[in-house]
Request: fold
Amino acid sequence: MNQSDEPVVRARNLRKDYGSEEGLVRAVDGIDLDVIRGETVAVMGPSGCGKSTLLHLLGGLDRPTAGEVWLAGQRIDEMSERALAHLRRSAIGFVFQAFQLMDELTVLENVELPALLAGRSPRAACRRATELLEQVGLTQRMTHLPTALSGGQRQRVAIARALANEPVIVFADEPTGNLDSVATTELLGLFDALHTSGLTLVIVTHDERVAATADRLISMRDGAFVGDTRLTGGSTGNLARLAGLDG
Amino acid sequence: MGRLLLIWRLAARDLRCRPAQAALLLVVIAAAMTSLTLGLVLHGVTAKPYAQTQAQTAGPDVAASSVGYGGDSETFAALAHAPGVTAHSGPYPVAWPVLRAHGVSADVMAEGRDQAPAVVDQPKVLQGSWVRPGGVVVERAFADALGIHVGDTVTLDGKPFPVVGIAVTAAVPVYSQVCFYGGCSGPAGRPKQFDTGLIWLTQPTVRGLAGSANPLTYYLNLRLSDPAAAPAFVSQHQPPPTNGPAALTSWQSLSAAAGTLVSQEQNVLSPASWLLSLLALATVAVVAGGRMAEQERRVGLLKAAGATPSLAAIVLLAEHLIIAICAAGVGLAAGWLVAPLLTSPGASLVGAASAPTLTLATVLLVVVVALIVATASTLVPAVRAARISTVRLLTGSVRSPRRQAWLIKLSSRLPVPLLLGLRLVARRPRRTLLSGASFTVTAATIVAVLIYHATVHHDALRTGPYSGAADPGQARVDQVLLVVTVIMVVLAAANALFTTWATVLDARRFSAIARSLGTTPRQTASSLSVTQLLPALTGALLGIPAGTALYGAVQDSGSQAGLPLLWLVFLVLGMLAAVVALTAAPASISTRQPIAQILQSEAA
Reply:
């Protein structure tokens, strides 16, 4: 396992409320969390427990009601939208359950978009996108539109896009939620490769197979952590057995 | 009947749920229909004031000027005894001095009259008294234009005269049409001025104003046994044509000249109303297109509940048709109420114009145009929505964005706001085209108005230092142009605002994804402004030749001044600045909502 002691993500007493007074819903309730570099953390819990909300707060896609969030050494809960945007561009990758690809752009155009937004030249962005699509096994589909792809293929495109600017951390929100078992298995292999390469991952999932690939499993219920288990050895060398592929 | 009632209930319910949008559509269509109504009802409203003036001044059936007879004074004088003439007055001597009052100079037709009343053409004195030795009586519209009142002192070729009276007549064309009929004269080599006024003095005084370089001419007023035969009399006795206006003028021509003020307004309002209708069409299409996204799900629900595709389409159309009919009614009423402000015959005549009449043809035309405007922008989306499968309507997968590969490739080389802005434009080409058309119509109107003002200014400079009096016809045209231009600009601004809102709503998911990938709020807001800046720039540039052609088509003939390059540059920059200002608010509001909330709500 390739880790350092420097937390990439740190949260202290994190809270997120929706509504007010009688209609108040506390989606995240006093969370403390440290994720160190190179670690893969899986967050599991029943529907509505606040795990997606937690991910959005950690990734700067939403503002907490209270508490602190530190990412890549910077406090982001009080950061301006402009500064957050710069951080998302350089340090964060996000993979959504619904893929969130742009339907009118080809696979290649979707993957090169973050690099273009970061100011890279079209040639450099295209080169990077091509490399990533090769890594995720979609070279043959570069000129296809997302609507022509299967769910698993779309999610691989989304992962490639999330890696376009070589982020420090990738947040994945139910990445296999819309996939069948075959596609899920393919994606597990991809996550394993990312983990091996030293990327820091935080994955929200209710799929135990995905959770089993992590170094650490956090259980969540009613907005709070109810368990934090370090999985021995993580998934290295055990993926095939865990995924049932080793015959 | 049951089906009609159902359609009415569904349409009315939806209109009640979205009153702001319905009101907006109604105002837009009503503005265009008001202009159309005005253009249609102005025709022929000044006949009554001329008839009243003719009755009160014993106006002639034929007015004759000696200018068209060259030096043949015998033939001119013999007109007074021609067959069919039952009475006459004159020939009266006419001099052509330069009048100066309150620092303004103008050419005048100075007619020498007796102090005793004449049988034919006795001008009606409205203030002061009739001519007396040493005093001058000024025609009322000309007096208003120069700000002359009884008691003032004016000079004629440098000689001072007190103003003793203000009067009107039906024997000479209304100010400022004097030189279009009857023949104007003056010093040799001086061009005839359009703002020549009319004054009266005693005959000896007028003879004293003439000179060898500016000789007298004569004016003769005739009454016929058959006034309706005046045009025939004119044709029979008209001398061979010269380079100037005709010598003989019938009362029918004088009556038509009296309508010049209103016909000039009509010349502006008629094309303006069609332009406003075009602009209203574009605006309605944008607003209706934005509503269609919500309406498609509603159509899906209707079809899921058992409605046929045609019924679903009819319900969609019915709402817009109801709005169109209401807007036509508002436009007709507003046009009918505003018309009297434009039908005033001017100070040259007594009496008021008759109330404008809303004929059945006018009502039908306005209603039909309003229905066309509403239908043209909603028919295609309504029919398309009715044909699409129910499932697609309910899941909202109908209006997928378009792909323009060349635009996407081009945009990748541009800064982020332009990169995203171009890609947003590429998603909805029809909306961009409508927006561009709206800006083109607006720019063309502004260019045409600028050319009009430049031409008037150029002509005024060209005609020399004597011009200075206010032209009432031009003043009223200026007012109408101003009102039309303001309405046009307001509609175009509304169009820009609606289009931006529609783009913001349509691009919520697009913008949220872009923000999740690292686009700053300013870049996102700027990209939304770009979606309007591009059609605004295109429209402004296309509007320049379009406006030039529009002016040429409306004017039909006559001079046309070129516009200074600086004016055109200001026009283009002004439109772009206005678009930036209008789109800033909706664009920045769109970036305030957290990304996660937008993506979750769009996925729901």
Summary: Residues 234-247 of chain A have pLDDT under 50 and may be disordered. The CA atoms of residues 240 and 246 of chain A lie 5 Å apart. Strands of chain A lie at 7-18, 25-36, 40-44, 66-71, 74-75, 92-95, 169-173, 200-204, 216-221, 224-230.
